[in-house]
Structures are given as C-alpha cells and as structure tokens.
Amino acid sequence: MDLTNKVALITGGKRMGLAVAAALAGRGADVMLTYGRSRAEAEQAVARVHAASRRGAAIQADLSQPDRCAGAVRQTVDAFGRLDVLVNMASIYARRPFAELSVDDWDAVMHVDLRAAFLCAHAAAPHMRAQGGGRIINFSDWVARSGRPRYEGFLPYYVAKAGAIALTEGLALELARDHILVNAIAPGPIVAPPGTTDEELRAVADATPLGRWGGEAEIAKTVLALVDSDFITGETLRVDGGRHVK
Questions:
Q1: What band does 12 get if pLDDT is binned at 50, 70 and 90?
Q2: Given 24, 47, 93, 163, which is the most exposed site by the fewest CB atoms within 10 A?
C-alpha cells in the first residue's frame, strides 16, 4: 500500500506508538491517535506527525467502553475523510497474582487488549471496504505467539494476547475478499516497562540471542512492512531478537 495521503488510526499513543506514528507520517499518511491517560505522550506523537508535514491529532478514548471504539473510528473519518490503516496497540500490562485476581481485573485487560481490537476493526472495516481495501494490524506478545506462558502473574494479559492471534486469523479470513489484510505483531524485548532495574535490563538482554533490547524503531519497521505487503494476511510476526528460540 502506498501511504501517500492515506489515513491511519493508532490506538495507544505512547512508547511504541510514537515511533509508529512518526514512521507512518514519514511515508505520507495522516495519523489519528487515541490515548487513555497518556496525553503528554500522545501529543508528542502528534508533534512528530506534524514535523513530517502531515495532519495529526489525538483524542482521549476509554477503549474499555464499546461506544468509544466506534467513536474513535468515526472521529478519524470525520477529521481526515477516510481510514486506510488501523493499528490496535492499546493494552493493559499489569502483574497480579492469580489468587488476587478479580472479575474486574480480568475484564479490564480483556476489554482493552482484545475486545477493543475487535470493536475498532468492526467499525473500521466498512470504511476500508468502501474504498477498496485497507490494513489492520493487531498487537500480541512474543510469549503468546510462542504458545506457552513463561511468567506468573500475567494470566489475563497472556490470554488476551493469545486471543489477539486468533482474532487476527479470523478477521483475515472474514475480510480477505474486501482486500483488507489483517496481521499482528508480537513484540519481545523492545522497550523496558517503567521501573525496570539495570539488573533486569541486563538479564533480558543476556536471554536474547541478539544480546540487546530492540527499541521502538523495530516495531515501526514491522508495521511498515505489513502495510507494504499485498499478500501477507493472517500472520503474527514475532519481533523478539530471537528470544523464543533460546
């Protein structure tokens, strides 16, 4: 897909979202971002879009609410006139022991990490269909893509990210005839979570065959590669520096 004068919606405007927004704008796209509480980071992403001489905006949206998912798509089309690329990056990542998990904890992760991706795709597909096609890129996790949990305390997250793979495959089949390609990215050690110690940083790097953290740019490159392709759909690509083979 040639991104010149196309429009992308990114859910989740912080950390990796900043790099993805800048990369899409650099290729000629206008970019809308949603954020939950990270307004400052979303505004930084918009500034990067503007620096590439493209239109950009950010909207606050609680994607745990179904109407806000459809609303984000509607606001994007209202602002920029169309929607060609949807990048479902919004996610909740929080450690909680299984014995302490509540229904609310479970639902909070499922609603944002999995249901919101479905709802945003459901709202976006008619706009993409009307203009002859599009791209939807979901986000999973390298652990879920590897098919087995490795870390205790992340049960809802693991299940939601495994579900994102199934969602990607199912949507790819449902939307293929509309020329809407659906894929997912499963990041590994890209950006350390807040509060990561120097010791933990080194341990992760040592456990990664390439011997380092990847950085946000690797995710942006992968998004562009999936947008560029006209024949990859239903795939979940690990971007983990070989972590899954060690």
A1: confident
A2: 93
Model's pTM, two decimal places?
0.96
Select which of 93, 151, 157, 158 is catalytic: 157
Is 45 a domain residue? Answer: yes
pLDDT, tens digit, for every residue of 42-55?
A: 999 999 999 999 99
Domain-located, residue 1: no
The contacts of residue 35 (CB under 8 Å, 6+ apart) are: 12, 13, 14, 41, 42, 58, 59, 60, 61
Question: 10 Å Cβ neighbour count for 4?
Answer: 8
198: containing domain: 7-245
Bridge partners for 34 per DSSP? 11, 59
Domain-located, residue 19: yes
Tell me whether residue 63 is in a domain. yes
CATH of the domain at 12: 3.40.50.720
| 93 assigned to active site | no
